[in-house]
């Protein structure tokens, strides 16, 4: 039987798409004139481009005029680079420009054919310089010749881009449709911070010893590191023991910046490979307190509320201050070997970076010294140290070798710096500007936390710098399953990207749900899971500079107002049918804590799922409350916002019944906090429930509405990209 070609139509021809009677009145046309651009992938239908609405329509009821081509400039240069938004449709609440017109295989073939034709013309030696002058006419003819595909550029501001319009058009194979620079903007930042961000990241950090050894800056940094190690007597050279484990090492390179964005120094670290250590032989106890991210945000919020300065200090050769109790051997660094490196190794006397027990040794040394200076360790977070005497109040945060100090007395802060410098080798970095990969921009009574440099580095390392942005990090109502799709070919890459995304949630609560979803499949990622990761990266490209905004509240002298939003997606996990809990906590208008996680047990009703979520939110806000009280702050009110009235009634109703007896512990915990007046459950309408952002995929309009309620800065360019 011969194949049937009756459904094959001429690409780019004029077509008329039928409009259903329910979508029109009797005075409107029964069909819309469009352009044929391809076929539907999942079902039978034709894809037609409507130049009026700038959308692709898919329909079976189409009449074709295969001999007519409407050669207007309404068609985008490529189908996938089409941008549906016009210059008058930009607004701050939804600045991400999402492509509603996906790429079709037919358009790819037509474009490739056109490129081949242009390439043949360019290789013809008889071509003269007039070829470029008639470039637009030739492209139009080529487009008409190859199925009527028209090349055109859609620019939002033609006056601002007039020079680009006069330049000769690039072939598609040479053009980046969505260059990253069109999506990065510093307009909403203060002038000082704009200068800072413009300088940060200009020089790339090497990733290997071979790369670093080619630069005199990094050679000098490595020499300084080795001199410091020898000065402290970190190791001695001994013959290689055959019965002992020898730990490997690697060089890590970082650039330290001054508050104005200029390079303060190039920093090289010799780091041991902890994964080569063996338990019971070269390490035993490894636990070391690490500051909670919520604590950092709470302290920053207080500093903004009271107008305190945030000072930053860096500890030189941090882990060299800790004594090593175990017997540990390490390979000799290349370029600094003594004798045969295969026969001689380093026997460590003091801990160095990378060892499993190094953090514990350093923290014990620092904790003892700082408490001798009058500070006390906070029982709720051991990495927070508090000094209070009469009217003097100082807070000190430590995260490995980075220290942040703030308080109401600049004089005491300077005294504390002097005391620490007497005991440890430290360097003062001025006002807090760049901390743990987070950019801090402070201007008047406003402070923003962003991770723009970290986001751009992640896009570059994952090969997604030129991807097409989308408006949301997750698909509407999509639930990932462990059984969907085929196993992903490179699980190591998947785990690396997802791990980086988890750290990005420090300032990006808008991606917490999407990241939580893809984090559940680290053991066996599949193609569908990697597609979800790529969508998050595409969303991040369009919002690379977004972050949290902290500001002052009114009447904080009477106490702080805590507000907790909780929400649950009942049976949201398709594999185990467990519910998804999400909550966020505000101090005044400043967002300090949020969470999205799967519940431990299966809920038998939506009320039970919501009540478990209330218990999780209550536990977190109780911790925040106690932290503020330990610091010495007053709490005015603490409200728990929930959109499930049954769950709220359980919190007040002392009568137990069949629906709640299996959540008795959570029930008593929440009810006790209610009776103690530590929290006040309040009903909130579903459309005003901010925590809805943390439990499910939403539409773009709903997503950006709730994102605005998180007080997130929208610091990205509002330009069309591509060509």
TrEMBL record:
<dbReference type="InterPro" id="IPR057670">
    <property type="entry name" value="SH3_retrovirus"/>
</dbReference>
<dbReference type="Pfam" id="PF25597">
    <property type="entry name" value="SH3_retrovirus"/>
</dbReference>
<protein>
    <submittedName>
        <fullName>Uncharacterized protein</fullName>
    </submittedName>
</protein>
<dbReference type="Pfam" id="PF07727">
    <property type="entry name" value="RVT_2"/>
</dbReference>
<dbReference type="InterPro" id="IPR013103">
    <property type="entry name" value="RVT_2"/>
</dbReference>
<feature type="region of interest" description="Disordered">
    <location>
        <begin position="100"/>
        <end position="145"/>
    </location>
</feature>
<dbReference type="InterPro" id="IPR043502">
    <property type="entry name" value="DNA/RNA_pol_sf"/>
</dbReference>
<feature type="compositionally biased region" description="Basic and acidic residues">
    <location>
        <begin position="130"/>
        <end position="145"/>
    </location>
</feature>
<feature type="compositionally biased region" description="Polar residues">
    <location>
        <begin position="110"/>
        <end position="126"/>
    </location>
</feature>
<feature type="domain" description="Retroviral polymerase SH3-like">
    <location>
        <begin position="13"/>
        <end position="73"/>
    </location>
</feature>
<feature type="domain" description="Reverse transcriptase Ty1/copia-type">
    <location>
        <begin position="234"/>
        <end position="474"/>
    </location>
</feature>
């Amino acid at each position: 039987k011969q194949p049937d070609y009756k459904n094959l139509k001429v690409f780019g021809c004029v077509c008329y798409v039928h409009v259903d009677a329910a979508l029109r009145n009797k005075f409107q046309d029964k069909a819309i004139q469009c352009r044929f651009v391809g076929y539907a992938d999942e079902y039978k239908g034709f894809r037609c481009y409507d130049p009026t609405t700038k959308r692709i329509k898919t329909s079976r009821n189409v009449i074709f005029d295969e001999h007519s081509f409407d050669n207007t400039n309404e068609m985008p240069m490529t189908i996938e680079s089409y941008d549906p938004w016009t210059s008058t449709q930009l607004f701050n609440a939804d600045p991400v420009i999402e492509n509603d017109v996906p790429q079709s295989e037919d358009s790819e073939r037509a474009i490739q054919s056109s490129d081949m034709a242009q390439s043949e013309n360019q290789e013809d030696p008889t071509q003269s310089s007039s070829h470029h002058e008639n470039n637009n006419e030739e492209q139009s003819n080529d487009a008409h010749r190859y199925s009527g595909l028209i090349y055109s550029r859609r620019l939002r501001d033609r006056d601002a881009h007039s020079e680009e319009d006069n330049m000769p058009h690039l072939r598609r194979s040479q053009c980046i449709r969505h260059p990253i620079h069109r999506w990065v903007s510093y307009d909403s930042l203060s002038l000082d911070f704009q200068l800072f961000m413009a300088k940060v990241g200009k020089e790339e950090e090497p990733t290997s010893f071979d790369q670093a050894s080619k630069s005199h800056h990094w050679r000098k940094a490595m020499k300084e590191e080795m001199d410091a190690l020898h000065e402290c007597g970190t190791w001695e050279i001994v013959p290689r023991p055959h019965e002992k484990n020898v730990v490997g090492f690697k060089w890590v390179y970082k650039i330290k910046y001054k508050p104005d964005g200029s390079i303060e120094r190039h920093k090289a670290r010799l780091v041991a490979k902890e994964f080569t250590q063996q338990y019971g032989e070269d390490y035993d106890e490894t636990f070391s307190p690490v500051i909670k991210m919520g604590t950092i945000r709470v302290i920053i919020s207080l500093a903004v509320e009271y107008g305190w300065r945030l000072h930053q200090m860096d500890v030189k050769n941090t882990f060299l201050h800790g004594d090593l109790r175990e017997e540990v051997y390490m390979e000799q660094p290349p370029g600094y070997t003594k004798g045969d490196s295969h026969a001689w190794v380093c026997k460590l006397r003091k801990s160095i970076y990378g060892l499993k027990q190094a953090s514990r040794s350093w923290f014990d040394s620092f904790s003892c010294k700082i408490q001798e200076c009058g500070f006390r360790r906070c029982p709720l977070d051991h990495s927070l140290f508090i000094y209070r005497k009469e009217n003097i109040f100082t807070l000190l945060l430590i995260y490995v070798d980075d220290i942040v100090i703030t308080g109401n007395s600049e004089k005491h802060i300077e005294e504390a710096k002097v005391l620490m410098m007497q005991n440890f080798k430290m360097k003062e970095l001025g006002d807090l500007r760049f901390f743990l990969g987070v950019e801090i921009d402070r201007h008047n009574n406003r402070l923003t936390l962003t991770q723009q440099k970290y986001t751009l580095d992640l896009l570059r390392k994952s090969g997604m710098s030129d991807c097409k942005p989308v408006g949301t990090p997750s698909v509407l109502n999509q639930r990932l399953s462990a059984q969907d799709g085929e196993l992903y070919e490179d699980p190591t890459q998947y785990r690396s990207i997802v791990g980086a995304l988890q750290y990005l949630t420090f300032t990006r609560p808008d991606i917490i749900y999407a990241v939580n979803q893809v984090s559940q499949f680290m053991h066996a990622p599949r193609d569908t899971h990697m597609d979800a990761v790529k969508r998050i990266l595409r969303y991040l490209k369009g919002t690379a500079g977004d972050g949290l905004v902290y500001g002052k509240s009114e009447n904080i002298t009477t106490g702080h107002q805590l507000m907790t939003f909780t929400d649950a997606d009942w049976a949201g996990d398709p594999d185990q049918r467990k519910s998804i809990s999400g909550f966020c906590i505000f101090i005044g208008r400043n967002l300090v804590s949020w969470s999205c996680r799967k519940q431990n047990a299966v809920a038998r009703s939506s009320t039970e799922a919501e009540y478990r979520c209330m218990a999780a939110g209550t536990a977190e806000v109780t911790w925040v409350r106690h932290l503020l009280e330990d610091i010495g702050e007053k709490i005015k009110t603490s409200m728990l916002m929930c959109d499930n009235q049954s769950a709220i009634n359980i919190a007040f109703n002392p009568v137990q019944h069949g629906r709640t007896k299996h959540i008795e512990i959570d029930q008593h915990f929440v009810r006790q906090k209610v009776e103690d007046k530590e929290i006040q459950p309040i009903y909130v309408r579903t459309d005003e429930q901010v925590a809805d952002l943390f439990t499910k995929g939403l539409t773009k309009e709903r997503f950006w509405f709730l994102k605005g309620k998180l007080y997130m800065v929208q610091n990205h360019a509002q330009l069309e990209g591509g060509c």
